[in-house]
Amino acid sequence: MSQHATTYVPKSRFAKWFESRLPLAGLVHSSFIAFPVPRNLTYFWTFGAILIFMLAAQIVTGVWLAMHYVPHANLAFDSVEAIMRDVNYGWLLRYLHANGASMFFIAVYIHIFRNLYYGSYKAPREVLYLLGIIIFILMMATAFMGYVLPWGQMSFWGATVITNLFSAVPVVGDTIVSLLWGGYSVGNPTLNRFFALHYLLPFMIAGVVVLHIWALHVVGQNNPAGIPIKSGKDAVPFTPYATVKDLFATVVFMMFFAWWVFFLPNYLGHADNYIPANPAVTPAHIVPEWYFLPFYAILRAIPDKLGGVIAMFGAIVVLALVPWLDTSRVRSANYRPLYRQFFWVFVIVCVLLGWLGAKPPEGGYVIAARICTAWYFIHFLVVLPLLGLFETPKPLPSSIAETVLGKKGGAGMPVGAAAEPSTRG
Amino acid sequence: MIATGAVGAVGVGALAWPFVASLAPDAQTVAAGAPVEVDLAPISPGQIVKVFWRGKLIFVRNRTEEEIKAAQDVNLASLPDPQPDSARVKEGHPNILVVYGNCTHLGCVPLGNEGPFHGWFCPCHGSVFDTSGRVRGGPAPINLPVPPYTFVSDTKIRIGEESNAAPKAAHA
Ligand code: HEM
Ligand code: FES
After folding, report:
1. Model pTM score
2. Which residues on chain B place their C-beta less than 8 Å from a C-beta of chain A?
3. Residue B17 falls inside a structural domain
């Protein structure tokens, strides 16, 4: 691990005794106190802290909900209604948890687009980035299974449609689906196992988050200039600078979160989910939660069952390949005039896909969804590899400090203390 | 080394098996698959009745003359999943169509008497089925399958049990 400005020196006798047995305080010190942070970070770098807060919030509200929730097909819906009406502050716990999932995804999408804009996935951060993609996939699985738990109409039909995706797998598809269901259709065994997994997965996410932060500790943060920390002038210590900024951003985010919880608690959900699950009737418009809409639009854009499923999962796989698809050596889009434009086109395409995912699959919507789906893949598979070869990047600044202070310099961390290990480019 | 590895692999496999197998439908669920009887007498021509067998939705449709004719007068070559109507009903009972009620795309319940062929139309992603339950458009890859069933009398069927006189080969 890299050397840092100050190293932890235990003072009391107990601290010395403990540190020589388990250097926990030293680890915390080097990761969250003395850790060198590029001095040019913007608020886009606070979403990591916000995500950790959201994970913790989901686990706390979730465990409390689980104390009242009953994972049985005949009782689940009523138990959620009891949470809403009878349990003290049950409405608050549930609205926090249900809206919390949406907030979690807002934060993760901003976090991911931040990475794509600033090229944060490039060497030496590929593993860090891949761990992030794994977290994203686990989050989607968790949220999907959580949405099944209230056992309303959307729960039931969402579960039916998503589990049926696996029936597209040749030969073994139907076996896989029956193993997912534990029956011949979505039913009580399905609900029961989804609850078990919904309880488990967030703790697995927490485990991957630890690896994610460990990887971050090794390679350091990227920054808006996309160039490494070269001297102490380029960095400030994590505490107090990043700690206070992260806390402030988290509090602002909590206000945004609270606004949904208290003023529009059901806006992001579907009214149909307040109708108990009925296996004989599908709601006229079944749509997933907003955070799945772009992927849903891709699924529906392909007029073939297996093809649609492959495209949908491919849309996530291609994200994981970005570190190897992008051939440019320059990280930050600030210095990549063409990539910068393609990035914004890509953002618009993703938003459009989200909008189209909520529209009925007919006429012009289908055509638009096909064009956007095609562009989604072209962006990754054609634009990213070619841009690196043809684009002339703008000259990079000579240091992070220069981007903030101009050429005159200024105070930072003690010189030499904060350099990224020298093997990186 | 190799022997140890092989023994280890067999051990892991043997231990994994019960975990995977436990996810399959349990004995209770399988036992709930006992055949169900449906009385056809109250189903008037043009009506579709929904019943459940093994937790799965099944449509029992008493087809009108026009619906039967529409199902039979089809150029089979034009179908995505070609199957003559006669292979989807029981001999001597061309009016009774029994099919699974979940869309073969992703499992939604198609709406009866809707869509261009007045068979079924799936609201989820737009699959179209005709009055024989055959797919005629949209992302559904195959026809609505016919569950095993048998006529116990002229006005009663038993779903979950195949008659000895099987219909002509289900799939060509
Ligand atoms: C990654 C973190 C998590 C996410 C994204 C998440 C997401 C969700 C979602 C979207 C729902 C449906 C809310 C609704 O419409 O009612 C839900 C329900 C539920 N979740 Fe979670 N959850 C997470 C963690 C947890 C944890 C750790 C537990 C602990 C047991 C838990 C327990 C529950 C329970 C009992 C319900 C059903 C009650 C209800 O629907 O309000 N969740 N979850
Ligand atoms: S589930 Fe019927 S068309 Fe997709």
Report:
1. 0.91
2. 20, 23-26, 29, 33, 50, 52, 54-57, 101-102, 105-109, 123-126, 138-141
3. no
